[in-house]
Amino acid sequence: MLAFLAADANEAVTMYYMLQAVKIEYIKLERSLTDTKVKGWV
What we know:
With 42 residues, the protein is mainly α. 50% of the residues lie in helices and 0% in strands. The two termini are 18 Å apart. The mean pLDDT is 91.
């Protein structure tokens, strides 16, 4: 998923896209992703 997000935007894979992919996966799992868990990612 990460690579597809970056490819759709015609950009390199960065931590921004990693965070977006993780958010999508957490939503699928019906779990909350706190700022503490991703602090310093971007």
